[in-house]
Amino acid sequence: MTAEYKLHGDVAVITMNNPPVNGLGYATRVGLANGLDRANGDNSVKAIVITGAGKAFSGGADINEFGSPKASAEPNLHSVIRMVESSDKPVVAAIHSVAMGGGLELSLGCHYRIAAPGASIALPEVKLGILPGAGGTQRLPRVLGVETALNMIVSGEPVKSELLAQLPGQKLFDRMAASQASLLEEAIAFARSVADARPLPLVRNLPCKHPQGDAYFQFARNMVKGMAKNFPAPAKCVDAVEASTQGRFEDGLARERELFVYLVQTPESAALRHVFFAERAASKIPDVPADTPQREIKSVAVIGAGTMGGGISMNFLNAGIPVTVLEMKQEALDRGVATIRKNYEAQVKKGKLKSDKYDQRMSLLSTTLDYKELKDADLVIEAVFEEMGVKQKVFETLDAVMKPGAILASNTSTLDVNKIASFTKRPQDVVGMHFFSPANVMKLLEVVRGAKTGKDVLATVMSLAKKIKKTAVVSGVCDGFIGNRMIEQYGRQAGFLLDEGATPQQVDKAIEKFGFAMGPFRMGDLAGNDIGWAIRKRRAVEHPNMLYSRTADKLCELGRFGQKTGAGWYDYQSGKRDAIPSQLVVKMIEDHRKELGITPRKIADEEIVQRLVFALVNEGARILEDGIASRASDIDMVYLTGYGFPLYRGGPMLYADQVGLFNVVQAMKRFQRNPRDDAKFWEPAPLLARLAAEGKTFN
Ligand code: 3HC
Ligand code: NAI
Description:
By secondary structure, this protein is of the alpha/beta class. The two termini are 30 Å apart. The model has no long low-confidence stretch (mean pLDDT 96).
């Protein structure tokens, strides 16, 4: 049982105790129900307080139970709330730290609520693709007014208790406690003071109306439609809250239930719940325990002030950690600092950064041409040219100058981190920190674990990632790590599709309709087609048997590197980013087909999407099998946070699970029969084949 029962004189205190956040799982609900029964059956008890142990009142329904019979097993949350409402003795919720989702809904069933300042109050269900399903959409409007409640429900964002307490006419909190420390004592005293109050007040009995009901809800619907493309939950939140203003409370509750049951079964909700856990799972490394000692990171050095070095530095400056940047020449330093300055100034102009914060960040930045000035940094991140020879010199120098215990990281996107580590006498201190461009914006950080990387180094980098607000995912060492190794296969398929009859815009449109932020060709034009060209040249030596379409090379031979040269797969007008279909490129592709003797065929969008996405899935399965990623959900996080994979589909591996691995394998067998494709690649990865045959999933 995960709720404790204790008497404080004539007041019974029921304390939910289900770490980490007192999720209202089955055992906690049983604990609450037993406590309520016991208090109501004890003549010496005059009033009841419900509160939470540890760091929350309650974080809501136990997300782990979703989709399992336990979620609805009696007493379900509705039954517990009904027990609270119908308690003979007043029930007071003593709220602190976190009252979210079902936790807030439970408190709304209580006769009274007292809150500590600083508590985060939210109905965040929409972020999991559902809506509050235990009366939240019916009760919150009754205590906060329709508009405030709807805003909270549609956004899911937490609001601090003291702010809510100041809203005119609010009935959410009957009282604010002076502090969290005094909350329980004040709640007990308050409970005692209302022990004889009858009838007991119920939120469900409060009136609920909006003066311009129809017009307001129409407005809300339009707003939500624009914001929540591809996600069904926000619009359903509006429907449910509207129901709270129309007719009987019980009818509104029934409508809420109906919408909740609908939403919980949608693939979008499954995707968002998957992401919730995937994000938290990614921060854990199976063989690195949570209590692994960490090194202290109080200062950072960055080698190279180019595209990546500047963005990387900004992450640490934003977190208040001083950064020293080293370059080969003063001009390069000046250019790098000017770019950082420009980025911050743009934020100030947009009102996203206060000018005193800007000054504070810039004051943490220093520059040098001399390695000796870096020697005391706790972490150094190398972001110089992507050439092993250059990296070798840098790491040999770092090994010679850096203090013992400093972490030596490389931002390499393709090179062998083990080899880089071997340039030092301290390979245990070497790790890959692969940021994504623009490094100050993109959430993803691939943490590349070398064969000898120390566990304390990994633990330190993972927790540092949290501090700089990155989603860190651990990858083993291989060419391209998780993300780029997979994107290589996606890009190869995009090329083959051109050879077979598609145009760049058809491929881009199809995958953008699937939900990707940008198709492969628009992406290539943005990132620079010359980068892939250089990688293919290197691969041609290392993997001479790898098949590619020649179209991308031909494009580069024409000097069409993308937006930076004003032309790539598309044409660009100066100063604009709109991709204009290029007749020249279409002709180049047609000529190429003629050279190969290919008769173009009409390719359906469905085939385009399947070939691109299943290419990710098959390589993802190999990556899992090779132990490069520890979980399928880690791969999903990489794609969601670094490659623009649509959030509502939950990442490539979850998408494959949802399509059904059997169907994925069937599609791959079809692609194998295509004479223009790479039949060897489409051999389903053994892990995928096995899971499909056993009717299992990746996740
Ligand atoms: N159920 C189960 N576990 C939960 C949980 C929940 N509702 N909320 C958080 N957790 C777990 C996390 O998985 C994590 O576990 P781990 O340590 O094993 O990885 C742990 O609690 C800590 O979570 P965070 O790392 O997120 O800790 P923070 O302190 O940063 O944040 C929080 C705490 C604000 C509560 C945040 O976890 C959060 O936003 N949780 C989600 C709350 C939520 O969505 N509640 C609604 C649930 S749906 C519902 O109530 C339906 C109802 O209407 C019927
Ligand atoms: P860049 O060319 O913009 O910047 C590199 C900088 O390093 C230049 O300013 C150069 O003067 C400096 N430099 C070169 N050798 C040096 C040395 N010996 N000592 C000190 N400074 C030196 O390159 P970019 O794009 O910033 O890439 C840097 C690294 O980051 C590469 O390893 C690259 O693979 C990786 N990377 C790049 C991404 C991108 O999208 N550009 C994404 C992720 C990783």
